[in-house]
Specification:
33% of the residues lie in helices and 19% in strands. The chain is an alpha/beta fold.
Length: 419
């Protein structure tokens, strides 16, 4: 399914949300237990002022007088989906990216706002942006937080802190070299409002030429980044396809690894023992995604690089699941992007089951585990009293069949019905 928006829709959805004037009661649905316990059938979930005020069976949970009623009979209720690797301003090599080569900052902001709205309507209520252009992501986050427009909750890295010649850098671009330049770059992003710092410590699929498994940064550069970030209470994650770069980053105190194309069981055991999170983005390298690349007109060199990492990336995901490293879902595609008959976020979760997770584990990887990674599990990722009222209703039990997420019927964020 693909969700498109014109400017009229954007303006309609950009109106202030306002305060919730009376409680909302969702009735008749089944609340899924993310811990594997019994679900709450014929549940009542009371929402007040953007939070969950009560949840329990209808026999013991009172619907407040005057509440707005949402009849969820026949639906399974889960927390809103969370996607931890999203670039709302994504530009990939190929025809689609070439059409955006002269995009202005204002045009980028509108495009990112439209992608944010589409992501939320698809059931993704929280995202993490590991690097986007020009701090537009941070401005968009502030606009959403103010209620100026609709979109998911955003945690963002600002702009990626790059090394000269690294993944994502232009041929003639001078970026950061040496620990002192990296310290300054990290401070700049934190001052801009970043709550994560994103590095690229190895090669990547979307950069033409160079070894995807190459290790770009030195140990003192890595330590400079983690030192400054952690002094500010900010976490650090890294694009990495390299076993060597990943081992060095873990030793330097990194908090997360993205992609992990060529990682082995040894690296995942090290990550597990060090409390380092893994965001697989398995979607980007698998055959089922080829129609997406064809749709955006990807050049042959890009497709060759995708094919070159696919099997190794799949082996890496299976090893990570087997080892028990902490995994949070991320796609590196728009959360709502059409992919193999569903949206990218759901297809990513389905891959996790195919690679060895149970359906419940995959559901957790899309809900409570990302909340834990963000350090926000006291507010997000589960349906409980006091939590932010972000939830979805689906037509089947996703804890038994993750593909039930393909049929989302209800989306609520902060107590407001999105669709």
């Amino acid at each position: 399914m693909r969700i498109r928006f014109d400017l009229g829709m954007l303006l309609i959805l950009a109106s202030p949300l306002g305060a919730q004037d009376r409680p909302v009661a969702i009735t008749g649905g089944t609340v899924v237990d993310l811990d594997g316990g019994p679900h709450i059938e014929n549940a009542v979930v009371v929402l007040r002022d953007g939070r969950i005020a009560a949840v329990g069976p209808a026999t013991t949970t009172r619907v407040p007088d005057g509440a707005k009623i949402i009849d969820a009979t026949g639906l399974w209720l889960t927390p809103g989906l969370m996607n931890m690797h999203v670039h709302l301003g994504l530009k990939l090599p190929g025809a689609a990216g070439a059409a955006l080569v002269n995009e202005t900052r204002a045009e980028l902001a509108l495009r990112m706002a439209a992608n944010a709205i589409a992501s939320l309507r698809a059931g993704v209520t929280t995202i993490r942006i590991p690097g986007d252009e020009g701090h537009v992501d941070l401005a968009l986050k502030r606009a959403i937080d103010r209620g100026d427009l609709q979109g998911p909750r955003i945690y963002s890295s600002g702009q990626m802190v790059q090394v000269t010649g690294g993944h994502g850098s232009a041929v003639d671009e001078i970026a950061n070299d040496g620990p002192y330049e990296f310290r300054k770059a990290v401070r700049r992003e934190i001052r801009a409002g970043a709550t994560w710092i994103k590095l690229a410590i190895s090669g990547g699929i979307a950069t033409q030429g160079g070894d995807i498994a190459a290790s770009f940064m030195t140990r003192d550069e890595l330590e400079a980044v983690t030192d400054v970030a952690h002094r500010h209470g900010v976490k650090v994650t890294a694009h990495s396809g390299s076993p060597e770069a990943t081992r060095e980053a873990v030793a330097a105190g990194i908090d997360g690894i993205e992609h992990g194309y060529f990682l082995t069981r040894a690296e995942f055991e090290l990550m597990r023992d060090s409390g380092v999170w893994y965001v697989p983005t398995i979607l980007v390298s698998q055959p089922a995604t080829m129609p997406f690349f064809e749709r955006i007109g990807s050049p042959e060199w890009y497709l060759d690089r995708v094919r070159a990492v696919g099997e190794r990336h799949w082996d890496a995901l299976r090893a990570a699941i087997s080892v028990g490293v902490d995994i949070a879902l991320g796609t590196d595609q728009f959360p709502h992007e059409e992919n193999d008959g569903t949206i990218a976020t759901v297809r990513e979760a389905e891959y996790y089951v195919a690679a060895g997770m149970t359906d419940l584990q995959a559901l957790r990887a899309a809900t409570i585990e990302p909340a834990r990674m963000l350090g926000a599990d006291d507010e997000l990722g589960s349906i409980g009293v006091g939590k932010l009222a972000d939830l979805i209703g689906v037509a089947g039990d996703p804890s038994l069949d993750i593909s039930a997420l393909r049929d989302i019927r209800l989306v609520i964020k902060g107590g407001e019905v999105v669709r």
